[in-house]
C-alpha cells in the first residue's frame, strides 16, 4: 500500500484539517513544555517549594486537625504496657509485649483507631433529629468538629484498639 495514498485519503476525509489539528497539537505541546521549564527555573526570591516540604510528613496542606504527632514523647512511652482491650489478648504463657508509643507505627495505629471512632460518632450523629436544614458550611464545620472529637477520644478514652493494631503489626 502506498503511504502517499493513505496520507492523501486521510487528508480528503478530514478536508485538510488533520494536518492543521496536528500542527496545533504540536504547538500546544511545545508551549506547555516551555511553560514547565520556565516554572522549574523561575526563582523570584521565594523559590519553588513542593507540598512535601511544606506539609508535615503524611499530612496534607490545609489539614487543620490536631493529629497525633508528638502526643507521646517521654522515655516511659517507649516501653509502655498495653491498655484497654489490648490487655485481654495477653496469654499468661507468652512474654508480655511492650508498646513504643513514640513510633510512627503507633501514630498510624492511633489514626486508624480515630477513623473507627469517627465512623461510630458519624453513625450516632445521623440518629439526632435536626430542627432546621443545614447548609454546606455548617455540615463541613460539624464534620471537622467530629474529627476533633474522634481524635480527642482516641487520645484520652483508652479504648486500646490502637494498642491491638500495633501489637498485631509488630
Number of helices: 6
The fraction of residues in strands falls at under 5%
Helix content: 40-55%
Distance between the ends: 66 Å
User: Given the C-alpha coordinates, what overall shape results?
Assistant: elongated
Number of strands: 0
Structural class: mainly alpha
What is the residue-averaged pLDDT?
A: 76
* Series of secondary-structure elements, N-terminal to C-terminal: HHHHHH
Are there runs of 5+ residues with pLDDT below 50, and where? Answer: none
The major sheet is characterized as: none
Oligomer: single chain
Rg to the nearest angstrom? Answer: 29 Å
Explain this structure.
This protein has helices at 3-13, 17-41, 51-54, 104-126, 136-156, 161-169. By secondary structure, it is mainly α. α4 packs across α6 (161-169). The longest helix has 25 residues, at 17-41.
How would you concisely characterize the structure shown here?
The chain is an all-alpha fold. It has helices spanning 3-13, 17-41, 51-54, 104-126, 136-156, 161-169.
Write the topology of this structure.
Elements: H1 3-13, H2 17-41, H3 51-54, H4 104-126, H5 136-156, H6 161-169
